[in-house]
Specification:
The protein is mainly α and 131 residues long. It has helices spanning 2-41, 61-72, 83-95, 117-130, and strands at 50-51, 114-115. The longest helix is centred in the first third of the chain and has 40 residues, at 2-41.
């Protein structure tokens, strides 16, 4: 009887772990698609260059994502036809959260090189693939 209870508990715990992972994967895939959509609607000429984190160390992932979120607020739509799509994708990116490991990162957003909005978004998508 005890073995049966232990088996049931193990089965239940393992099934819960397996269901949690696909949700997280789906969330990151959706975020990746959102960034790709934004690449097609963002204005890339005559705009402010943005600080673009590249290859952040593990302790700095949270800081890098925060830098990208701040940078997305400075993006501008390509034209008025894509404005509503642009606004929706920005809202999705603002809601994205990454758990803060509590470690302080030594590099700030301003320490990263400035790049064009499209390069900025490509680096953001690359970071999401790493996470």
């Amino acid at each position: 009887m005890e073995r049966m209870i232990i088996f049931c508990m193990l089965f239940f715990c393992s099934s819960m772990a397996l269901t949690a992972a696909p949700y997280k994967i789906a969330k990151y895939k959706q975020l990746f698609k959102t960034i790709e959509l934004l690449e097609t609607t963002v204005k890339d000429k005559d705009v402010e260059l943005l600080h673009t984190p590249e290859n952040p160390v593990d302790g700095c992932l949270f800081t890098a994502v925060t830098c990208f979120q701040k940078g997305t607020l400075k993006l501008q739509p390509k034209n008025s036809q894509v404005n509503s799509t642009f606004t929706q994708t920005i809202k999705v990116l603002k809601r994205f959260t990454l758990s803060n490991p509590g470690k302080q990162c030594e590099s700030s957003c301003e320490s990263y090189e400035k790049k064009t909005p499209k390069e900025f978004l490509k680096s953001f998508a690359k970071l999401i693939k790493q996470v």
